[in-house]
Amino acid sequence: MNSISTKNAVVHFNASVYTELNNYIITKNPSKIFILVDTNTHDLCLPQFLERLESGDIIVEVMEMPNGEDHKTIDICMGVWEALSEYNADRKSLLINLGGGVVTDLGGFVASTYMRGIAYINIPTSLLAMVDASVGGKTGVDLGALKNQVGVINEGEMVGVDTSFLNTLPQNEMVSGFAEMLKHGLIYDKDYWHTLTHLENLDISDLDKLIYDSVIIKNKVVTDDPTEQGLRKILNFGHTLGHAIESYFLENADKTPLLHGEAIAIGMLMEAFISNKTCDLGIEELNVISEGILKTFAKVDINKQDQELIINLLKHDKKNSHGIVKFVLLDAIGKPKIDCVVSNELILEAFDFYAAL
After folding, report:
1. Cβ contact 299:266 at 8 Å
2. Regions of the chain with pLDDT less than 70
3. Which residues are listed as membrane-spanning (predicted)?
4. What is the DSSP annotation of 97-121?
5. 169, 204, 232 — which closes off a domain?
6. What is the CATH number of the domain that holds 120?
7. What is the pLDDT, as a whole number, of residue 220?
8. 135 & 233 share domain
């Protein structure tokens, strides 16, 4: 697969990842190399990565953080910043983020702010990070249970997508990443959506091409609108309600936390319903979307009390302006519509729609 040029970086795939990474190290000659991993990627991915990393005489230090969305916090950033300082990282140091979306988001933020910015490279190891966090330079951490409230947009030096790391993932993490791929089809390419929802016609060898196609779609959107002033907003389809649902389940001890993709799948179903009620999305396409998503994602119980509290979380959504919640909806599969205002009454109807599926 050919590498994909983004606005300020390049996404490399499989064998070329290590060729390009090692060439970068030879050319740039960083003062030190730091590798950020979590407890999972430390054991499952780091040994394989180190075997192929050619650092020469450059000192390599590994920093480990706990795994999981609940550790995507400023407190963890403090620990990483302090570790960089203790290991005498300077402005010519390189930070390599080896992990899923939590590691790449947090690591990118740490690199972008340490000494006002050092170079970083993302090596995503989860499907979600490969197709979503890999492109666009969005970095950041959560503020309590509120998703990605603190961060910057700053692309790394490169992204390396080695799909062999997917062999380390449990099934639910693969499914979680698949939600973002479905989203790419819904907002950009009806044929891609159709392919993803008919995977019985494909085999595992097709996965690399599907990942590549998702990166192509995200890159086209991000290149046209790097700072999310217009077109890039379409990437938030399913995320207005999805993030609120994810945050609610994360912060409530009596709830089982949802993976990102599990929450986004619910958000896409509900926002497709709202699209049918307020935009041009027809009932037939709404049914196609519902069937396509429910092929992969099981229903989650959200009771009436949960619904009101989830709606209260919408006021923290980053797409809001002047206190108004803005949604991305669909006029059709592949035809998104941004900056849509939706009443709380219609959101409650969407919860009823989801419950009845």
Report:
1. no
2. 201-204, 317-323
3. none
4. EEESHHHHHHHHHHHHHGGG--EEE
5. 169
6. 3.40.50.1970
7. 92
8. no
Map residue 30 onto helix, strand or coil: coil
Angle subtended at Cα 134 by Cα 128 and Cα 140, rounded to the nearest 5 degrees:
90
Q: For 336, phi and psi rounded to 5 degrees? A: -80, 165
Asked if 271 and 209 sit in the same domain, the reply is yes
Cα separation of 6 and 135, whole Å? Answer: 7
Q: Is the same domain home to 276 and 206?
A: yes
User: Are the C-beta atoms of residues 196 and 210 closer than 8 Å to each other?
Assistant: yes
H or E stretch at 328: strand 327-332
* Residue 29 · residue 54 · CB < 8 Å: no
| 287 and 238 in a common domain | yes
Euclidean distance between CA atoms 242 and 254, whole angstroms: 19
* Among the listed residues 136, 140, 180, 124, the one whose alpha carbon sits nearest the alpha carbon of residue 6: 136
CATH at residue 183: 1.20.1090.10
Domain that holds residue 221: 172-356
Asked if 139 and 217 sit in the same domain, the reply is no
What is the pTM assigned to this prediction?
A: 0.92
Q: Are residues 65 and 177 in the same domain?
A: no
| The token pair that represents 272 in the structure block | 């497709």
- Around Cβ 257, how many Cβ atoms within 10 Å? 17
